[in-house]
Write a structure and sequence with these properties.
Distance between the termini: 30 Å
CATH architecture: Roll
Strand order of the largest sheet: 1-2-3-4
Radius of gyration: 14 Å
Number of strands: 4
Strand content: 25-35%
CATH class: Alpha Beta
Helix content: 25-40%
Amino acid sequence: MRSILASAALSVCIAAPAGAQEAEIEGVIGAQIDAFQIDDYATAFGFASPMIQGMFQTPENFGLMVRQGYPMVHRPDAVQYLTLEDTGGILRQTVMIRDTSGTLHFLQYDMVDGPDGWKVNGVRIIRNPDVGA
């Protein structure tokens, strides 16, 4: 079960586009994380963009990559959505994830809109997120 980190953990400047778009993107990321929590790699794979699906070919390969490369996403303790930025066609959602040992991780999800809605087009771990008072 996912929980939301208290916003008091960090004071973050959030400059996110408002409206349904933001909620849809957070919903896709959250649903993918929920699928990972129960090892439902087929569902999680469905939230990946066609490019990502082409790279990994099967839900099993995709699940293996996430378990090995992004264990904090596979089994997070808490998730908080931070900034959503438009980078000219790709929206980047920054997410703070606390893993089960209590370590905070900041990830940037590249999101693309397609005929079936928003899809995850890549995730990268970021070392020093922009934070402000």
